[in-house]
Amino acid sequence: MSSTPPSNSKSPLEAAQKLVVELTGMTSEHQSLALKFAIETLGLQIPAAFSPVVAQPTHPAQPTPPHVASGADHSTDIRSFTAMKAPKSDQQFAAVVAYFYQFEAKPDNRKDEIDAEIMKEAARLAGRPQVARWNMTLTNAKNSGYLDSAGPGKFKLSSVGENLVAITLPGNGGPSHGSGANTKKKVKKKSSKKIAKKKG
User: What are the angstrom distances between the C-alpha of 195 and each of 88, 189, 199?
Assistant: First the structure.
């Protein structure tokens, strides 16, 4: 004996009102998902309007960092890289070393920070003379703006140092850091010549 399902006394309007009450307070996406699940459970065909639209994450265009250079300005050998950049002082050399280990070295050898021991080894590999206290050189480079402090005895490349190595070096005859004394001497010589001419 087959049984007949009981007649549903609920009207579509009442059912819709209950759905509205249940969905109130939810986000539009969750509301769409709830309706989608209900329709699938009932075995109904899903209207296109109920399909939730999932926003795709947007990735803003990243600016090209100055260290991305052509093959002519790229080297994974610190000796070649130092020769190419031709730092004019030990402080600039410290910036070159920090830049090299952060961007140019092979992935296994890259470092975000440098210290006196790394500078000593870098100078040996680059064929530069050793200084008595690399810690003092690193501190002076920090005071010049080329490096930032990264903890006791540790330093990392600053934005100024990055631009120095990526854009300014080699200097191509431009004024190098620490050349103020020579400039002052030239100014003094010129001024003394002018005074001599006035006296004459």
Answer: 34, 10, 6
